[in-house]
Design goal:
By secondary structure, the protein is mostly helical. Helix 1 crosses helix 2.
Length: 83
């Protein structure tokens, strides 16, 4: 049969202590996993920022349209714009 979990842990610990190449490989994998987790977090933040920016842009366009409507109405009232 295969080895027990405890035996596997003992072998891994022995390799970590005695095998420099194995130690660097494990450290590299652990570091890479942390980097990937951080990238995932950053990606989620960027998506949220993009959504917020799009909402801000829509609000600004709506605001400009309102201002334009008021200016047009004022112009029409004073006979400056329109027919």
């Amino acid at each position: 049969m295969g080895m027990s979990s405890a035996e596997l842990k003992r072998r891994i610990l022995r390799l970590l202590r005695g095998d420099e190449e194995f130690r660097y490989a494990v450290a590299g994998l652990l570091g890479l996993e942390e980097i990937l987790k951080r990238l995932d977090r950053h990606e989620a933040e960027l998506v949220k920022l993009r959504e917020d920016t799009n909402k801000l842009r829509k609000d600004m366009i709506r605001g400009f349209e309102l201002v334009e409507g008021h200016i047009t109405a004022l112009g029409a009232r004073w006979g400056i714009m329109g027919d």
